[in-house]
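Recap slide: Lipoprotein, sequence and predicted structure.
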Amino acid sequence: MSLRHTLVVACALACATTVSACGGSSEQEAAGLTADAAAFDGLDQAVVEEVLENPDAVGKIEDEASSSAAASMAQGITINFVVCRRVAADYRTWVTTGAVPTLAALPEPTRPQQPSYADWQRMHDDLAALYASGDPAQVRGFLTGESSCGHWIPAEPGDVSGPTVEDVVGEIG
């Protein structure tokens, strides 16, 4: 075998190894979690895939110290994307029509991961109280600010470079 042929084969093998090691498959993952992981059973798969493609979300998931903590974080972030966008839509309706919306039920994964699901149950109760206050400004507070869901979640699914939920809420007033 010629040196040139050997180099071509070696390069091809190196490229194939690099592609497979760097996620050459079309399936996204974070901390070993893929869209078909048990933590995501019962959740909207389009949102799950969006979370696994979102650099901020992936960073938060991969920062977890254990696989169970990563699964809990991933499930919690997926629920966060759903709830944050629903609440933003409710806020828009509330301030444009004056009618207090009904808070949608919390997404229910088939296999709730703790502590994130228990945290979300508490937050959902807190949101219900904000809605019951009759003051849309209280709901706005949930959507805006440094530690809010709206600060980093894209307003449009998958558009990580576009406006966040917070940006859109700011435009509403």
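Residues 30-172 form one domain.
Confidence is low (pLDDT under 50) at residues 1-27.
(End of recap.)
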